What we know:
2 copies of one chain form a homodimer.
Chain A: H1 6-33, E1 39-44, E2 52-60, E3 65-78, H2 81-86, E4 93-105, E5 112-123, E6 129-141, H3 147-161, H4 168-179, E7 193-202, E8 217-219, H5 221-233, H6 235-246, H7 253-272, H8 275-282, H9 287-290, E9 297-299, H10 311-320
Parallel strand pairs in A: 7-8
Antiparallel strand pairs in A: 1-2, 2-3, 3-4, 4-5, 5-6, 6-7
Amino acid sequence: MHTKTETQLFREDWITCVLSWQSAICEALEKIDGKAKFKTDEWQRHPDGKGGGGKTRIISNGNVFEKGGVNTSVVYGKVTDVMRKQLKIEGEKWFACGLSLVIHPFNPFVPTVHANWRYLEIYDHWDNVSDQWFGGGADLTPYYLFEEDAGHFHRTLKNAMDPFGKELYPRYKKWCDEYFNNAHRGVETRGIGGVFYDHLKPAHTSVPSDSLKGGEQKMDVGKLFDFQRGNGDCFIDAYIPIVEKRKDLPWNAENKYWQEIRRGRYVEFNLLHDRGTLFGLKTNGRVESILMSLPPTVRFDYNYQPKEGSEEWKLLEVCRNPRDWI
Amino acid sequence: MHTKTETQLFREDWITCVLSWQSAICEALEKIDGKAKFKTDEWQRHPDGKGGGGKTRIISNGNVFEKGGVNTSVVYGKVTDVMRKQLKIEGEKWFACGLSLVIHPFNPFVPTVHANWRYLEIYDHWDNVSDQWFGGGADLTPYYLFEEDAGHFHRTLKNAMDPFGKELYPRYKKWCDEYFNNAHRGVETRGIGGVFYDHLKPAHTSVPSDSLKGGEQKMDVGKLFDFQRGNGDCFIDAYIPIVEKRKDLPWNAENKYWQEIRRGRYVEFNLLHDRGTLFGLKTNGRVESILMSLPPTVRFDYNYQPKEGSEEWKLLEVCRNPRDWI
């Protein structure tokens, strides 16, 4: 009888964690929506099941949520030339497991939210793990600014991170602002941010500490798992109370128009800049699961500018000048 | 007194040609729209006028046209690292002048159209022209298939090309189908195509004939100009009769829904694959002039599939299996 290796147990714990988040988050969203239920599409990368697959869960046309997806995948394969070149991955095989969600509410006063938590392993020629890391984050995209909502979202994320080091939240808050930026428009973030981190590696990894790039970090392996779990665990508390508070606010056609204009920026970011989206599409990922992130209805006007001093303009101002929300 | 060089005269003739197309095309579109007028934004790359600029002409909320742009630019600068790397341009300075248009009608039975005709010059260290070429094309994006419209559009383009060589239309029709493809979805073209060509160089260019890449071609300089002019000149005849024939067809919410779904694919193509768009955005082009190509209202549904045998499905079928329209 085989005894499972620590690596196998770590991977299995992570898969369990991701699947339980998927259930819990879908349940919380269904509950607050009160009408729509998630539909599930299970898919495989190859017909014979080799390469793994995923579970795409989609909600649409609810009371609160116009379109949303909470997707998990457990996938693996050989390192391809595209991965070597574009992801700078050295090694022979890879394994990835993560959850990715984007929720687009109807009401322009309820923000869109995105989150992703992922774990990757790279194997060498002898099937030993040569590199492994966690990445993740959550960010909020409101259409109208409620400072208390931005504060609540950021504080919840900060509280989840603080036990692992007070320096983490400020570092990953900044990374989030830098990452979720529509750089072709100068500085104009997608929303009011959150946290973003990548390449967090267990202390025992064979990658030497002095070769870690900006933002990369090593942590004790147990602490690392708890850090990642803490981030995912706080998601429901970070988002649902904001939905609860704003979902019944009355809105008009002008508010919807602005929401659709800003959703256009969401599309610009996801298709022009988001590394996950571009990588997925370039490596034959499942197109519909990847593009579920795109908003349901969108508007692209030529050179649309909100009136200075208006509520729409105030939102744009914080996208152009990212703020401290704590 | 300086005598103008042949190169200068060639360039000036091309600028004149592009500007006269802009006027003629806007006039023809305004006439058939019957309500909306083009608005003009003139812009410069730098406040001091160095680097050139352009004339962005936008129509919106007309009787027929929901959003459209007919833009010209006359721009020049130093070859940057991004250009060297991404465009494989060798040389010191560049000059570019062209017209780019995208027209999005309201009525789902009137097709969207795109066209672009451009001329580029590259200069060496001694300010001599070291390379120069024309590129261009026009393609049609219907939401419902009228075979006679597709036939008319393609025949008009073919008739303009045939005098310069019977082999040109089939070659550039194929290039168009290959270029305007949403490759992340396998084979699914943006519409029913048209023609696309690039790197057509005058016979006297110093670039050796045996170093021309696939699709690149040399022509006698006078013939080349006439070829390019013939392509632009036929645009109004290629598109306007189709608008005339379809603009008053009654349509319903279902037709609009499908149009917005297909417009989503237009967005996917322009932001994920279109070289001009990506290059413009990466090299500090004027964002609003570049993104005027995006459709006004768009819908992204999860895994939307038209019913087999329906009119919507028939359109999708010809995108998945590009056809000969002559």
